[in-house]
Write a structure and sequence with these properties.
By secondary structure, this protein is α/β, with parallel strands linked by helices. About 45% of the residues lie in helices and about 15% in strands. The chain folds into 3 domains: about 5-165, P-loop containing nucleotide triphosphate hydrolases (Rossmann fold, 3-Layer(aba) Sandwich), CATH 3.40.50; about 170-355, Winged helix-like DNA-binding domain superfamily/Winged helix DNA-binding domain (Arc Repressor Mutant, subunit A), CATH 1.10.10.10; about 360-465, Trna Endonuclease, Chain: A, domain 1, CATH 3.40.1350.10. The strands form 3 sheets. It has a 5-stranded parallel β-sheet with strand order 2-3-4-1-5, sandwiched between helices. The protein has a 5-stranded mixed β-sheet with strand order 9-10-11-12-13. A 3-stranded antiparallel β-sheet has the order 6-8-7. Helix 9 crosses helix 16 (about 310-315) and helix 13 crosses helix 14 (about 255-265).
Length: about 475
């Protein structure tokens, strides 16, 4: 099932349609995010040669597989090549003219994790690119390799014609995988597994989310019981270090110094690079405080685990692996393990869903990115008589308005208490006289008639709008 990706498809097809020069397209993103599927969809009207790296294989095995695939797809005699330079030299003999589309999938694996393949390819790309009808896709899941050695490599500087980092599907797109389930179930699916297409494809839309999660996450041999190890082994070499960082962030967000203290490693360049790799892999997000009143931007940054599956894994699956591995009869361990606290879990996860659905919310508010100075979570410590305040999402606008978003997850419409709570937050902010504040309520179950009659909130956005 192919869902979404309209923007990415348009960008790729525009490159394919441009025959004025050779095209070098770099596409990367985390495992199972749908990179290969996107390329295949974009190339439906093209005759392309596909080559895929083999996870964990040595260079000679990678080369042998490449040569086999080249011979099979072109009908040419198999080349005798012992290095990537010889492979690319032989391949180049096919490419001087005519239409050629090449896809190097899992490019980091193809080079067995070594950067020599990048240098060798650069040398031959400069020759191949004399053919304006050539298009080469370099695709990979190892974000650190792709960003450091391909995207930001001097070898391909000014040579790439399109770079795409493929992210998860939006909450609304994710809901299309279970079209006949309720809006709330669609939201809960996203809050547990996120918008990774391969994950969403595991869901049986004929069954409830509880039955699906019990089978996939809380039963022996379930798809997600071993997914974490597979995911991290492909992405990172120092598995234990990255696991420790993610486990710490699963408990609570932290600044770099605090995070280094928690994982008992020195705060240095190596540790900062490891956190940066988690950000590139789209598991962790970096936040910089929203600054108000013309204050200088703080250099303080906090780091937060934002991948829904990893959060769900560390919260419910990992602590209960022993009993899950014994569940071979399909007992409802989901209800026993997650059931007692799942509503509280959804309360926190709803904030992440809202953040990922921010584009939808901005549309509902009639705002465009050009209208916004900055936006994000806001936290003010208590100082003197000014009380502390935490705002789920604050938008500082160019027209002198602060849009304050309050996120609420629950089964019942939100009552008048939310009005009093947000009024108090606005008072503690100490809003300058030249600034107007527009409070917005984002509620999974909407608001009571009393809240609506009060007219306090400029907008009330409900779950159906997001999902």
């Amino acid at each position: 099932m192919f869902v979404g990706r309209a923007h990415e498809l348009s960008l790729i097809r525009n490159r394919l349609a441009d025959r004025s020069k050779a095209q070098l397209v770099i596409l990367y993103g985390r495992r199972r995010i749908g990179k290969s599927t996107l390329i295949a969809k974009a190339l439906e009207q093209e005759q392309a040669l596909f080559f895929e790296g083999i996870e964990g294989a040595r260079t000679r095995v990678q080369i042998s597989q490449f040569l086999d695939d080249l011979s099979r797809q072109t009908g040419k005699v198999r080349l005798a090549a012992r290095s990537w330079r010889e492979v690319f030299q032989g391949l180049g003999e096919l490419l001087p003219s005519g239409r050629w589309v090449l896809v190097f999938d899992e490019f980091p694996w193809m080079g067995a994790g070594r950067t020599q393949i990048v240098s060798d390819l650069k040398l031959h790309w400069d020759r191949w690119s004399r053919n304006p009808n050539l298009c080469l896709f370099l695709c990979g899941s190892v974000a650190s390799f792709m960003t450091q050695h391909v995207v930001h490599s001097k070898a391909f500087h000014n040579r790439k014609t399109l770079e795409l980092c493929l992210g998860p599907l939006t909450p609304r797109e994710s809901g299309l995988f279970i079209p006949r389930r309720s809006v709330r179930e669609k939201a809960q699916l996203y809050m547990c597994l996120g918008g990774v297409p391969k994950y969403l494809e595991q869901i049986d839309p004929r069954q409830s989310l509880e039955k699906n999660l019990n089978h996939l996450c809380f039963s022996a041999g379930g798809f997600f019981t071993e997914e974490y190890e597979t995911l991290f082994k492909e992405q990172f070499r120092s598995l234990k270090v990255y696991e420790t960082i993610v486990a710490a962030l699963a408990r609570a967000p932290a600044g770099l110094s605090e995070l280094a203290r928690q994982v008992s490693v020195p705060k240095g360049g190596g540790f900062g690079a490891q956190v940066a790799n988690l950000i590139r892999a789209q598991f962790v997000r970096e936040y910089q405080p929203v600054m108000l009143g013309g204050k200088r931007r703080s250099r303080t940054r906090s780091y937060k685990l934002t991948d829904p599956f990893l959060i769900f894994f560390f919260h419910y699956i990992r602590p209960n692996r022993a009993v899950i591995e014994r569940n071979r009869r399909g007992e409802n361990l989901y209800r026993a393990i997650a059931g007692p606290t799942i509503q509280q879990y959804y309360g926190y996860a709803f904030e992440r869903l809202c953040e990922e659905a921010m584009e939808v919310m901005l549309d509902r508010l009639g705002l465009r990115l050009a209208d916004i100075v900055e936006m994000g979570p806001f936290f003010q410590q208590q100082r003197g008589q000014r009380g502390g305040v935490q705002i789920d999402w604050l938008i500082v606008r160019r027209d002198g308005v602060w849009t304050l978003l309050e996120f609420k997850y629950g089964k019942s419409p939100v009552g008048m208490q939310v009005v009093h709570d947000v009024e108090q937050k606005i008072q503690r902010l100490g809003v300058p006289p030249e600034i107007s504040v527009e409070p917005v309520l984002v509620s999974a179950a909407g608001a009571t008639k009393a809240v609506q009659r009060s007219g306090f909130f400029h907008h009330v956005i409900e779950l159906e709008d997001l999902v």
